[in-house]
């Protein structure tokens, strides 16, 4: 299939609500064949694993790229000089940042819109939003900035606003005024941003000894970890603090789990119980594996998460993360970064990938 045919098939598949496992498998194999043909580094790795479009018959057998490979190699079916958008992982000054190449954002945007409407908006067409993260003009290579900018454009009211600046971070005067306005208006309000931004907000609310009671139907979306940008808070303490400070019940505090190396996101149904069950839309599937063997671990046992995201058609649809998880009914529980034997297994998987990808078969 050509790139245009892949994009067309994906846009149709994302819109459907009647897809079957066989439909997912068929499109996954088509995308694997496309990536095998056009992505040299990935093809070398797949051949080294004995996996080709002729031998792979199920999406579970499509070889998964270790996530750190996005920092070391160019993973793109389209020549990078023709790429319109490059998303980069966050990183400290001077560190190597992973890159995800998007020849078009049509599929990425459709993936975000459909999933966000279903998992966060809860039947509401639009809601006033306060964004605790820079927009995509400030951070053009941030997938989160693009995600939140699109959220406002598609689902926010006209008076939604970005409440951070590149120079000073959280604009606390404007933020507190927005919370006061929402509290008095009686209209539901949504706060969205990186988890660490909420920590800074909680610390300031505590310092000023204030409390807010946002109207019924208000929602919170946090995403990502703390990434050294704030103090660390355990999930139960974090969501208890949000509920206490803002008056939003934990059932309406939604965590989005996403990454630069994917084009789709996972959500939970609120954080009344931690860790919550996360799940994705019908165009992404997840496995929990032993990183050394690549084989699934039994349900209920801890392993490393592998995600197969059809929407990530240009780079690599299947990725081996460095996140520990456990498979449960309805999705998986995210347990944090891998450690111990699993961490060593991920490192060995990455070494194996680099050896295969950098040597012509």
Give an overview of the whole structure:
The protein is 35% helix and 20% strand. With 361 residues, the protein is an alpha/beta fold. The chain folds into two domains: 3-82 and 282-357, Luciferase, domain 3; 107-277, Rossmann fold. The strands form four sheets. Strands 1, 12, 13, 14, 15 and 16 form a six-stranded mixed sheet that branches. A six-stranded mixed sheet has the order 5-4-8-9-10-11, with helices on both faces. Strand 8, helix 8 and strand 9 (219-223) form a beta-alpha-beta unit.
List the helices and strands and how they pair.
Blueprint: H1 3-15, H2 21-38, H3 40-48, E1 65-66, H4 69-72, E2 85-88, E3 99-102, H5 106-119, E4 128-132, H6 143-155, E5 161-162, E6 164-165, E7 169-170, H7 172-185, E8 189-194, H8 195-207, E9 219-223, H9 235-246, E10 253-257, E11 266-267, E12 277-278, E13 284-289, E14 302-309, E15 318-328, E16 331-337, H10 340-357
Parallel strand pairs: 1-15, 4-5, 4-8, 8-9, 9-10
Antiparallel strand pairs: 2-3, 6-7, 10-11, 12-16, 13-14, 14-15, 15-16
Give a concise summary.
By secondary structure, the chain is of the alpha/beta class. It has helices at 3-15, 21-38, 40-48, 69-72, 106-119, 143-155, 172-185, 195-207, 235-246, 340-357; strands spanning 65-66, 85-88, 99-102, 128-132, 161-162, 164-165, 169-170, 189-194, 219-223, 253-257, 266-267, 277-278, 284-289, 302-309, 318-328, 331-337.
Query: Could you give the order of the helices and strands?
Result: HHHEHEEHEHEEEHEHEHEEEEEEEH
Radius of gyration: 21 Å
Whole-number total of structural domains: 2
Question: CA-to-CA gap between the ends?
Answer: 24 Å
Task: Please state the second-level CATH architecture of the largest domain.
Answer: 3-Layer(aba) Sandwich
Helix percent band: 25-40%
If you average the pLDDT, what whole number results? Answer: 92
Question: What fold name stands as the CATH topology of the largest domain?
Answer: Rossmann fold
Please identify the structural class as seen in this structure: alpha/beta
Indicate the overall shape.
globular
- Biggest pleated sheet: 6 strands, mixed
Runs with pLDDT <50, length 5+? none
Percent of sequence in beta strands: 15-25%
Please work out how many helical segments DSSP would assign.
10
CATH class of the largest domain: Alpha Beta
- The tally of strands reads 16
């Amino acid at each position: 299939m050509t790139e245009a045919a892949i994009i067309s098939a994906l846009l149709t598949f994302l819109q459907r609500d009647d897809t079957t496992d066989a439909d997912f498998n068929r499109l996954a194999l088509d995308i694997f064949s496309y990536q095998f043909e056009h992505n040299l580094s990935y093809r070398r790795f797949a051949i080294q694993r004995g996996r080709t479009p002729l031998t792979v018959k199920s999406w579970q057998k499509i070889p998964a790229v270790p996530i750190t490979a996005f920092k070391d190699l160019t993973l793109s079916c389209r020549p990078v000089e023709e790429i319109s958008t490059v998303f980069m992982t966050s990183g400290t000054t001077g560190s190597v940042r992973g890159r995800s190449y998007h020849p078009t954002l049509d599929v990425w945007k459709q993936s975000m819109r459909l999933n966000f409407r279903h998992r966060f908006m809860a039947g509401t067409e639009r809601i006033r939003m306060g964004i605790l993260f820079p927009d995509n003009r400030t951070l053009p290579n941030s997938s989160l900035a693009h995600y939140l900018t699109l959220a406002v454009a598609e689902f926010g009211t006209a008076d939604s606003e970005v409440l951070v600046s590149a120079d000073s971070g959280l604009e606390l005067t404007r933020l507190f005024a927005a919370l006061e306005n929402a509290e008095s208006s009686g209209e539901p309000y949504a706060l969205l941003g990186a988890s660490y931004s909420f920590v800074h907000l909680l610390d300031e609310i505590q310092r000023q000894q204030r409390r807010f009671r946002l109207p019924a139907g208000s929602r919170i979306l946090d995403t990502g970890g703390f990434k050294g940008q704030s103090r660390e808070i355990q999930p139960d303490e974090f969501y208890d603090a949000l509920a206490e400070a803002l008056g939003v019940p934990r059932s309406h505090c939604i965590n989005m789990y996403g990454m630069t190396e994917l084009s789709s996101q996972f959500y939970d149904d609120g954080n009344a119980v931690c860790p919550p069950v996360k799940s994705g839309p019908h165009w992404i599937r997840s496995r929990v594996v032993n990183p050394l063997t690549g084989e699934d671990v039994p349900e209920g046992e801890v392993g490393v998460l592998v995600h197969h995201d059809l929407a990530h058609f240009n780079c690599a649809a299947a990725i081996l993360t460095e996140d520990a998880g456990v498979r449960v009914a309805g999705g998986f529980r995210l347990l944090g970064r891998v450690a111990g034997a699993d961490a060593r297994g991920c490192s060995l998987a990455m070494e194996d990938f680099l050896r295969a990808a950098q040597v012509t078969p």
